[in-house]
Fold each of these.
Amino acid sequence: MVDPKDRPSRASEAFFGRRHGKTIRPQQAAALESGLRAYGLDLSAPAPADLGTLFKSDVSAFQLEIGFGGGEHLLHRAAEVPATGFIGVEPFVNGMAKMMTALGKAPLANLKVYDDDATRLLDWLPPASLDGIDLLYPDPWPKKKHWKRRFVGPANLGRFARVLKAGGRFRFASDIDSYVNWTLLACRTNGSFAWLASDAADWHRPYEGWPGTRYEAKAIREGRRPAYLTFIRKG
Ligand SMILES: C[S@@+](CC[C@H](N)C(=O)[O-])C[C@H]1O[C@@H](n2cnc3c(N)ncnc32)[C@H](O)[C@@H]1O
């Protein structure tokens, strides 16, 4: 359980980024509106005990991606594994508009989205309901005075531990060494996660079938080296 003292009460607890970027073109705005109607999750109703009822197609496993940016990785994975239901979260309106424009052209029946702080969705989900959580290049907050804003911390790892099934997987990718070390330490302190690393090279080996992300491509162009961590929710 998440200790209440680790969960500050804020309207938007863990989102500190920008909600809006460049002005959205009318066509994209229309795609965003109709896309959110079709793909958006309504958190005002309680979550169903069986998450499968949220999706248009039959799905038997559930995967969450937090902060999907423009959605490139999420779209790739959802198209690749139609038997898994994917939930993507992104509060940045331009990212969500991009995603909805892509879905307008190539719809996916095994995908749902949420356009606000992921902590709200995590608190809405039933316990032990997810097979995996991907946190790919979360906002790095490299300055020490901002480390508290990082998505990984005691409260959110408590949330992950609650919603992941035993044996479920938490994947964390980052190009910021201090955040990688921070996450290893936080998972060790939490105690519910085992780090899966068979050898030292593992750390820098991309996940299987990895399509990359937009943020990652920029980090590599700028000379930073990505790290890919995988943790298993202990039983
Ligand atoms: C550095 S970007 C990476 C985007 C994408 N994963 C990629 O690799 O290209 C981090 C993303 O996380 C989103 N984000 C930040 N805080 C969040 C929160 N509390 N809940 C959900 N998403 C969040 C931001 O809006 C941003 O799009």
Amino acid sequence: MIIFGNSLSPFARKVLIAAAEKQVVFDHRQTGLGADDPEFLAASPFRKIPALVDGDFSISDSTAILTYLEAIRPEPNLLPVEARARARTVWYEEFGDTILIAAIAKVFFNRIVAPRFLKREGDLALADQAIAKEIPPLLDYLEGVMPPSLYLVEDRFTYADLSVFCPLLNLEHGDDILAQGRWPKVRAFFNQLCERPSITPIVAAERKLMKRK
Ligand SMILES: N[C@@H](CCC(=O)N[C@@H](CS)C(=O)NCC(=O)O)C(=O)O
């Protein structure tokens, strides 16, 4: 199996962690934006990362890939079976993949991607506005729904936690808002996940990269 996508992408990171949780053996290609590797393009018709190739099967989109991984490797179960828990897991995945990342991307792109990787100035006012106005209500929401176990669904690690965690790591790369103490449960949720064996190496590598000027 091949997984295409640099882990700085929250969507690629989601797939890399899911594969590690399921102990799937894979070859990781550090595909970035604008890649023209023909194998990657065959798997991802719109050049978006992540993408996956498994023998003669290929697919892109993190949600599609997680669905595939869950089907071929049902244990450990990361997509609950019980109706309400499954629906809530899909909701948190959708929340992470759309609402949360839309706001966080304004910070991550303009403060990190534009200056470091595209060698141009980002729209810093847009990033500041996201930190001041857009992101706090999303963290308020998470703080309000966070169970005492610090797992969003079924008091155990599922795709729900993974999908919310991944954008939060991009937030950490761009701003220290989560470390400020206003959202203690969300911060504890984030810190707990950073300690997971499937996640720790990715967090360590990215934090190291982020410190590099
Ligand atoms: N819904 C997709 C989103 C994938 C996505 O937008 N990936 C970004 C990187 S974070 C990308 O490849 N952007 C390049 C582009 O849009 O051309 C998923 O869950 O995988």
